[in-house]
């Protein structure tokens, strides 16, 4: 065996990718294992695409090393191609072709493909057989694209934004298929900037920005890590933060309309005092989080603190200013 | 082998399903052949009595240009623009089989075109003479030259630009290539230029192999062979997959 089961399906070691003067990826290392969904998460321009395209064999590292199933995606492409499945974010399919035709075409490339009709039913496109690619809806195109990534029974699947721009029902179908894929032992590398998707689907989250690693952990670890010393709650916007702060003896800020943060540990006494203060004013409590943050909180904190650190060094700060606040862009 | 045959069949099917490609590779050559054979408006070279005897070789040259350059170029240009080529790059298909399937598709198109056009020419009273066995050789050289030009455009320009340029080039090469208007009827320098174009070289060679009293085409064979080497070489050199 070229790649025994204990070798990680994907290995990225100190990967550097430069385009001229621009450093797209600057010394990134992480691994992805079989039977796990690894989400590669980062804002636009973080280096996700460059990294994944290197793993797919489209480009060569400037320095560092990548291995997929123990193989070099560049020089051993022909050995690797039968064992990986790729879903591009958009396009990639003959516009005039029908679903079953493209599935049969791709099936002919592999030694032991999944039966095309079966796959068509699995992605819920059995009733769209007469339609050409260009007349399928965005969600249908994504599902067909996913089917094409799976037809060769890959050991590693690279899925680029698999649910981008899809209606909720289609998203459910795709998530179920991806989860089944993981359960059958496939290593899934999911590129996304949909934090909700990473939180729901991924076994492991690798957060990158500016081509460097910010975090590599399970979603649960990320969401419970660090920052246990605050309480976040949602309520009517415009509450008197000063008065509440005096009551709790801690600083209270309204971070977004109706989203509050109390800078103190979530002891039972503090939580009780908070709810009592709200009850006195007959203010309903929309939600309350203590200790555990959403992945979005973690993501914003990590990318923003990385940004703050970078702005200490003037050389990079100038380039950064044009990108604006990335909080919304990441959602 | 299964991948190659399925790829070829799919490419051919997509190409025949595409109305514009069918128009340019079959309908337009057929229309020109029938119309100008029946309506006596075009000048003919000295010594040719029947229009179809001059038109049939020229229209076969046009057919080669339309499938190998226009159809192939436009189709591949859009496949590149829509990232089909990029997507295929991660499958086990591989570039050699992809190129092979494209070549096979063009050859199949040429066979279909030849059957339709030669059939129509015979129906119009065509009487080929010369050395027709050499005509397929000339058509293959022409196909290589035009495919090189088509893929050069497809591999370097956007799909829509390839579409526009291929159609424009088609018209220029048709008019200057001696396919329906004899070189004798062009002003000297324009005719001389036309004979150096791949369309001009191919139509001269096909006239010489399919018409008894056509001028010998020794130089045209050399010009055609040079195009058949240079154009694919340029396509290989400059083609960008993404």
From TrEMBL, chain A:
Subcellular location field: Cell membrane
CDD domains xrefs: ABC_DR_subfamily_A
PROSITE patterns the record matches: ABC_TRANSPORTER_1 (PS00211), ABC_TRANSPORTER_2 (PS50893)
GO cellular component terms, A-Z: plasma membrane
UniProt-listed Pfam families: ABC_tran
InterPro entries documented for this protein: AAA+_ATPase (IPR003593), ABC_transporter-like_ATP-bd (IPR003439), ABC_transporter-like_CS (IPR017871), ABC_transporter_ATP-binding (IPR050763), P-loop_NTPase (IPR027417)
Name under which the protein is recorded: Unannotated protein
Residue stretches of biased makeup (Basic residues): 320-331
Signal peptide limits: none
SUPFAM superfamilies documented for this protein: P-loop containing nucleoside triphosphate hydrolases
Gene Ontology molecular function terms on file: ATP binding; ATP hydrolysis activity
Residue ranges of every copy of the ABC transporter domain listed in the record: 10-235
SMART domains: AAA
Source organism per UniProt: freshwater metagenome
Region (Disordered): 306-331
Keywords from the UniProt entry: ATP-binding, Cell membrane, Membrane, Nucleotide-binding, Translocase, Transport
TrEMBL record, chain B:
Record field: transmembrane: 21-42, 54-78, 99-127, 133-154, 161-183, 220-239
Presence of the UniProt keyword Lyase in the record: no
Domain ABC transmembrane type-2 stretches: 20-242
Membrane-related topology note: Multi-pass membrane protein
Major subcellular site: membrane
Protein name: Unannotated protein
Subcellular compartments: Membrane
One MF term in the entry's GO annotations: ABC-type transporter activity
One cellular component (GO) term of this entry: ATP-binding cassette (ABC) transporter complex
UniProt KW keywords: Membrane, Transmembrane, Transmembrane helix
Species whose genome carries this gene: freshwater metagenome
């Amino acid at each position: 065996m070229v790649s025994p089961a204990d070798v990680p399906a994907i290995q990225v070691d100190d990967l550097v990718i430069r385009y001229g003067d621009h450093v797209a990826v600057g010394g990134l290392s992480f691994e992805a294992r079989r039977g796990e969904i690894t989400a590669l998460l980062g804002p636009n321009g973080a280096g996700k695409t460059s990294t994944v395209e290197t793993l797919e064999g489209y480009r060569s590292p400037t320095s560092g090393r990548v291995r997929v199933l123990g193989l070099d995606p560049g020089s051993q492409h022909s050995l690797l191609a039968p064992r990986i499945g790729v879903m591009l974010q958009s396009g990639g399919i003959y516009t005039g072709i029908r679903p079953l035709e493209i599935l049969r075409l791709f099936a002919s490339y592999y030694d032991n493909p999944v039966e095309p009709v079966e796959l068509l039913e699995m992605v819920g496109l059995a009733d769209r057989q007469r339609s050409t690619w260009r007349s399928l809806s965005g969600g249908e195109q994504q599902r067909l694209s996913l089917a094409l990534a799976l037809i060769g029974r890959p050991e590693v699947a690279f899925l680029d934004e698999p649910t981008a721009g899809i209606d909720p029902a289609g998203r459910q179908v795709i998530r179920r298929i991806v989860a089944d894929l993981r359960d059958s032992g496939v290593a899934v590398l999911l590129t996304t900037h949909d934090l909700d998707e990473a939180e729901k689907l991924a076994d492991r989250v690798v957060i990158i920005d500016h081509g460097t690693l910010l975090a590599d952990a399970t979603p649960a670890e990320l969401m419970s890590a660090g920052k246990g010393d605050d309480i976040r709650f949602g309520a009517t916007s415009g509450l008197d933060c000063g008065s509440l702060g005096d009551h709790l003896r801690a600083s209270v800020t309204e971070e977004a309309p109706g989203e509050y943060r109390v800078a103190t540990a979530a002891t039972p006494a503090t939580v009780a005092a908070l709810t009592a203060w709200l009850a006195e004013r007959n203010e309903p409590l929309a939600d309350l989080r203590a200790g555990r943050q959403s992945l979005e909180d973690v993501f914003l904190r990590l990318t923003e603190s990385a940004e703050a650190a970078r702005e200490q060094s003037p050389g990079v700060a100038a380039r950064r200013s044009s990108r604006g606040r990335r909080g919304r862009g990441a959602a | 082998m299964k991948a190659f045959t399925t790829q070829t069949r799919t490419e051919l099917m997509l190409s025949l399903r595409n109305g514009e490609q069918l128009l340019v590779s079959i309908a337009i050559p057929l229309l020109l052949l029938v119309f100008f054979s029946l309506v006596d408006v075009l000048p003919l070279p000295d010594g040719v009595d029947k229009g179809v005897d001059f038109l049939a070789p020229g229209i076969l040259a046009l057919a080669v240009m339309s499938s190998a350059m226009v159809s192939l170029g436009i189709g591949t240009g859009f496949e590149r623009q829509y990232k089909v080529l990029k997507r295929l790059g991660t499958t086990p298909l591989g570039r050699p089989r992809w190129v092979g399937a494209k070549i096979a598709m063009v050859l199949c198109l040429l066979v279909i075109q030849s059957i339709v056009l030669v059939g129509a020419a015979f129906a119009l009273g065509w009487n080929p003479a010369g050395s027709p066995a050499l005509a397929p050789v000339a058509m293959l050289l022409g196909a290589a030259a035009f495919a090189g030009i088509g893929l050069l455009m497809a591999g370097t320009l956007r799909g829509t630009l390839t579409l526009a340029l291929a159609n424009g080039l088609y018209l220029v090469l048709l008019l200057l290539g001696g396919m329906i208007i004899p070189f004798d009827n062009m002003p000297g320098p324009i005719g001389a230029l036309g004979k150096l174009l791949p369309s001009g070289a191919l139509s001269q060679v096909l006239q010489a192999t399919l018409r008894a009293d056509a001028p010998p085409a020794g130089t045209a064979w050399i010009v055609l062979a040079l195009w058949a080497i240079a154009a694919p070489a340029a396509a290989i050199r400059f083609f960008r997959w993404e």
